[in-house]
Amino acid sequence: MSSTTDAPEIHRITLDAAGIPISALLAEPSSPPRAVVVAIHGGGMSAGYFDSRARPGLSLLELGVRLGYAVLAVDRPGYGASTPRLPEGQTVDRQAATLHAALGDFAGTHETGAGFFLVAHSNGGKLALATAATPSTSRLIGLDISGLGSTLAVAPHQLPGPDGHGDWRRHWGSLRLYPPDAFRLGRALVSPVPGLEAREGPLWPHLYPGIAALVTIPVRFTFAEQELWWRFDDEAVEALKAPLSGTKVTVDHQPYAGHNISLGWAARSYHLRALGFLEECLLARDTAPLRRPRVSCPPPAGEGPDVRCSATHQTRLHM
Q1: Dist. CA 57–CA 269, nearest whole Å
Q2: Which domain does 302 fall in, by range?
Q3: Given this model, what pLDDT does residue 161 score?
Q4: Domain of 283: which CATH number?
Q5: What is the tens place of the pLDDT at every residue in 109-159?
Q6: Is residue 211 part of a domain?
């Protein structure tokens, strides 16, 4: 899939998500991966969104492998191989359950290093947040989300639906922000928006607070310079951050980019920043202070509490 001889090989695979086939693109380093970057596309797109071939260096899959990560770009439920089983797609909570099952299948046959780091775009960011909010055995490291907020910059009826992709220019912004080949190659990435996803889209500002409140892993949001679907003024950013009270939240801006950042000239810059955030998440984990377990000290038979044990216990309680 690449024109350069030293480019990592990218495979098309299918994961079993509790009986639902989930198609994906997979790139793996030659040695065991430090972690797995799970790339989640937005509405009306497909897994190839993160593997731009418009110019060398724009693919997240290639960049991730060069930095020692495996990169798994999935077709969300209702897209790719799952379409015959899910012609209407799934609501975001059901998508989260399906993705967890797919990641469990992947972990059963592949090394995952420190765990899974989700890089998601637009509607894929909704799935990333819902996945982090859903209890599971998946080891999630953090979330990096672009093209998604919680306050719409358009009227709800202007959002993409099953009969169309919405205002074309809101997806792209200025044409100068993209390599010329991006639009020709992008035609192969476009897929219909499943009905359930389209109908649930206008509800996101109401669904978001409840989902975000359950997220406990670090989250980074990126808004493109020409993001036209979501507000990212100070008031909107505060509303975005407020429900995420249980974790660290970072909000960044990507210059020289439109909504479809990973298809534009800024793709490499954004991907480097996203993987830099992954590095920070790993660093925070590796340098976190050790947690001492609490000690329960039953008194010896026929005596009061053991003084030495109680003193140790009290010291730990007050550390």
Answers
A1: 10
A2: 294-319
A3: 66
A4: 3.40.50.1820
A5: 999 999 999 999 999 999 999 999 998 888 999 999 999 999 999 988 888
A6: yes
